[in-house]
């Protein structure tokens, strides 16, 4: 079974496709995983900001279930962060690799801002205030 490789205009082997995919995935991991720290730091800042801004009422609302809920939401946010890998690998296969390098930062900023807004709304409902 062969796949078409548009960069060489010749049939590619399955092994070649797998090798190319592995390279794209490795590049994506090298780029996105260190930036996950930024993503999580922003979300933590939103949660702690709500906690501090809502004192003393926010502390009264904390319970084991609320903390477990925040843990669940944090894990869910990180699962959603992984969606960027699908986009990254897809764009690399599309042949837009050079242009993608410029857009990665925009994707990080927009995705992090979107997650921060979602975290804000959850915190408002869970901790009260604003």
Characterise the protein shown here.
With 130 residues, the chain is mostly helical. It is built from five helices and two strands; from the N terminus they run E-E-H-H-H-H-H. Helix 1 packs across helix 4 and helix 1 (14-53) packs parallel to helix 5 (97-127). It is elongated and about 65 Å long. The N and C termini lie far apart (59 Å).
Summarize the model shown.
With 130 residues, the chain is mainly α. It has five helices and two strands. The mean pLDDT is 86.
**How does the helix and strand content classify structurally?**
mainly alpha
**Count of extended strands:** 2
Domains, number:
1
Distance between the termini: 59 Å
Give the uncertain stretches in residue-range form: none
Spatial strand sequence of the major β-sheet: 1-2
Note the total helix count.
Answer: 5
Radius of gyration: 20 Å
Bulk shape: elongated
Describe the protein's topology.
Elements lengths: L1 E4 L4 E4 H40 L3 H5 L2 H18 L1 H12 L2 H31 L3
Antiparallel strand pairs: 1-2
Keywords:
130 residues; mainly alpha
């Amino acid at each position: 079974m062969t796949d078409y490789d548009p960069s060489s205009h010749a049939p590619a082997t399955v092994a070649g496709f797998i090798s190319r995919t592995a390279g794209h995935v490795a590049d994506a991991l090298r780029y996105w995983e260190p930036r996950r720290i930024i993503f999580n730091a922003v979300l933590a800042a939103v949660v702690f900001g709500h906690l501090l801004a809502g004192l003393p009422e926010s502390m009264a609302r904390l319970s084991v279930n609320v903390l477990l809920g925040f843990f669940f939401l944090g894990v869910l946010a990180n699962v959603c962060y992984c969606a960027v890998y699908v986009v990254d690998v897809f764009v690399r296969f599309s042949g837009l690799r050079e242009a993608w390098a410029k857009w990665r930062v925009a994707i990080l900023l927009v995705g992090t801002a979107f997650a921060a807004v979602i975290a804000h709304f959850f915190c408002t409902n869970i901790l009260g205030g604003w």
